[in-house]
Design brief:
CATH class: Alpha Beta
Strand content: 15-25%
Distance between the termini: 6 Å
Number of helices: 1
Number of domains: 1
C-alpha cells in the first residue's frame, strides 16, 4: 500500500525532503511513485495540509 498525495497539495515541498527513498516528485501538485514508496509515512507526518494518505 503506497501513500498518495491529493489535490489539496499546496506544493510546499515539506514532504519531498522527508522521503528516505526519493519517491516524491515536484510539480504543481507533488506525486509519489507507488513502486518506490516504502509505506513509511514520513511524508504524511510533515504535510501541513494533510494532503498525504495511505492508498
Amino acid at each position: 500500500m503506497a501513500y498518495v498525495i491529493s489535490d489539496e497539495c499546496i506544493a510546499c515541498g515539506s514532504c519531498e525532503g522527508e522521503c528516505p527513498v526519493q519517491a516524491i516528485s515536484a510539480g504543481d501538485v507533488y506525486s509519489i511513485d507507488a513502486d518506490a514508496c516504502t509505506d513509511c509515512g514520513a511524508c504524511a507526518e510533515v504535510c501541513p495540509v494533510d494532503a498525504i494518505s495511505a492508498e
